[in-house]
From TrEMBL:
Coiled coil: none annotated. InterPro entries: ComF/GntX_DNA_util-trans, PRTase-like, PRTase_dom. Residues 153-202 form the Phosphoribosyltransferase domain. It comes from the Bacteria. This is ComF family protein. PANTHER family: DNA UTILIZATION PROTEIN YHGH. Belongs to the ComF/GntX family.
Length: 207
């Protein structure tokens, strides 16, 4: 990371509600607006495979996760559940950026935090780029699932874990809300969502 980008990295995170907000969405935390240096970092890692950025982006994601956990106290384990990517997209990019960032965030936060890639995408989901809020919601409705064996493993190993859904960017909230729905349908309670950045039309106002 260049010195100017390093200096521009936000040190704090807050709740960034999308407008309009999907009904029932857990509080989504972000370190800042998806613009400038933050946008450049995310795109370089995601689209140009600058894999060395996984660590600093993971540290930013960790800042969002830590903010989401500030009200619950210490002691309970934490599970970071990255939103899934389409298999074709992962093949095209050559890596899974959200999973990589979530793992880096877990390492930053310490041994009580683990990454749990529980979510799977059903066939038929198309690329979200260019879709408006309604289109994204329709594209993702019912698109994610959690295999029962994965839930059983998590229930045995981390029965009291606080679950945080993770993504790189918050746009309309449709992806985070679908991930939350799938996890809760499988019996996994979701505490919050954490991302690196929220798009320009999002605001850090109360919901």
């Amino acid at each position: 990371m260049c010195p100017s980008c390093h200096e521009a990295r936000p040190a704090h995170a807050g709740v960034h509600w999308p407008t309009p907000c999907p009904a029932g969405l857990v509080p989504p935390y972000a370190v800042g607006e998806y613009a400038g240096a933050l946008r450049a970092l995310v795109l370089a890692h995601k689209e140009r495979r600058v894999l060395a950025l996984a660590r600093p982006l993971g540290e930013l994601l960790a800042t969002s996760v830590a903010a989401s956990l500030a009200t619950i106290g210490a002691g309970a384990p934490v599970l970071l559940v990255p939103v899934p990517s389409r298999a074709a997209t992962v093949r095209q990019r050559g890596h899974d950026p959200t999973l990589t960032m979530a793992r880096a965030a877990a390492r930053t936060l310490g041994p009580d935090v683990r990454t749990a890639p529980l979510l799977r995408l059903r066939p038929g989901v198309v690329d979200q780029a260019g879709l408006d809020a309604a289109g994204r919601a329709a594209n993702l409705a019912g698109s994610m699932t959690v295999p029962a064996p994965a839930v059983r493993r998590i229930s045995r190993r981390c029965p009291r874990a606080h679950v945080v859904v993770c993504d790189d960017v918050l746009t309309t909230g449709a992806t985070l809300r679908e991930a939350q729905r799938a996890l809760e349908a499988a019996g996994v309670r979701v505490h919050a969502a954490a991302v690196v950045a929220a798009t320009r039309r999002r605001s850090a106002a109360s919901h």
